[in-house]
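Journal club prep — side note

Before the paper discussion, L.F. wants everyone to see what a predicted structure for a comparable chain looks like in token form. Sequence:
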Amino acid sequence: MCGIAGWVGIGHPDMVLPSVRAAGRKQRHRGPDGEGILVLSSRDEIRYCEIAGNRVRIPETEPELGITVVIAHQRLAILDLSSTGAQPMSSLDHRIWLAYNGEIYNHIELRHELEAEGARFRGTSDTEVLLAAYQCWGLRCLDRLAGMFAFVIVDRAQRRVVLARDHLGQKPMYLRRAAGGLAFASEIPALLEIGGVGTKADLNPTLDYLATGRTDHRSDTMIAGVRRLDPGTTMQITGPSPGEWEQQRFWSIPSEEPAPRSDGVDEAAGTLRGLFEKSVEWHLRSDVTIGSLLSGGIDSSAIVLAQRQIGGPSLDLRAVSYIGTQGAPSEEPWIDMVTAASHCRVSKLHVGAEIWSDALTTAHRQGEPMGSPAILVHHALCRHAGASGIKVLLDGQGADEILAGYPSAIPLRIAALLRQGRVLSAGRVVAATTRGRRAGLMALAQAARAVLGQRQPLGRWPWIALKPAVVRDAISPNERPLTVAAQVRRYLTNTLPAILRWEDRNTMDASVEGRLPFLLPEVVAFCLSRPEAHLVGPRGESKYVLRRALRDLLPSAVADRRDKVGLAVPLRAWARTLPDVSRRLGHLAEAPGISSSWVRRHLISLREGQVPMGGDLFVIWRLVGFDLWREALGVEISF
């Protein structure tokens, strides 16, 4: 886990070297254990790599690269803590260079394969395995990688620079045109250091956020000129102009419904159990202290208990848990059940409104708005873990997205049963998942819309002072899903990207590597192949096949949980008691594109102690997050 910043173009490297160095050091939290810089230029034969202040001249090659490359790297040492894991790393002949951020969990298996092909290794890092894999298999190595990664390879033999990002985008890579070339970095604030110009809001993604609360689901970002390298994508750079920046996908989310399966749910549960245990075992590969975020929900509890099963009684099992205050729902009883069953040392963090003091810093690290203060809670947990000596943190993020774990999947399952004429089965799901006649009727109404194939109704956004047509044109497609599989695809494209950003920035700000065992590509592929009946059970049980797979691992009270709490924070209490909420909302009363009448109406209500319920409350927090982001990054709003 590390930080990367760099530039590819033409011209003398000194033109961008100071700003690339500054960008790298702006990401020092991502890699406090070492830093290096690579400079390759045919111009004046400037070729060197500098690590820990030691500069080594790089010999020329034939043919020459033909473009100038400057890359800064910050290292967080997780595997092979010695200097043999330092980066940028080169092949023995100096023809291929690698700067890499992430973790290849199957690096041991790949090392054995590569040794059989004749590869020789100097150390034990996964970085060296990735470099050798590219040397041996070229970009076909991406099909063999089980992990999370963003990397840049300078291939002097092929006269190209390659950027790549993992299957689901767990690790970040941002791009922008700068100083006549292409700049890239792990985080937006660092990227803005390279050939820096004014920071302006981009209209379409900004309106998308203001209207829907969504971020990270599109290639463009809320800052004009800054875009993401899409997940599962490579970019090959063979020259200085955009026409020589070729992008290709090596993996994508399936666009079709899952094919019919012959395996039943019990067989599928056995397969998933094996994949899950293998993933947890691989995620325990580390030369530093490992811990877990434990919420007491099914996903994080399974990760903790699987570690005990795999590591045995001698494993020093550690976890960090959040205990809410000010009336926030508490998961402490389930946390205690799991720690008792796993003999895990847990550190409980009681978090209240005091975490708001870090809001501006967190907003700057995030690079794009945080629509909920729950992100601050996660940030506090990561910092607490880092301060207690934990350097790798396992988390259950991703399970809900790949296994339809959100309540919105239930009406879609009811709709599928109704389409099949299984009215009694649909009624059992309704009865088991709703309380009271009103909730049951609402579930049936949602199911009916799915049966009829009704489109998502056009929204109204009274807090945005622009014509609805302008807002609609800015919003990326968000059709109502009609099946559970379509809902899963929507989770993966619209929900998961923002969660992965929060996870990455919060862990890295604490100089901690966050790992997500449920997002191992093999696990994801298996879950995406499941039929609806494996995802939503006959009584509306979410993540049904996972519950079946983990039945003997989890305490029964945890395995049978139907409630969904997450990092619950007292949104209404904080909106009423935190002065900064009203202050930041007030900033937006005259902001371009924001309805001053809507803002002032809610400001009056907040000052009178009247906090709205439902959608308006979420919009207030969305706008507060917007103002924090605007201030933290100095963004100019001009639409």
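L.F.'s comment for the group: The mean pLDDT is 93. Keep this in mind when we get to the figures.
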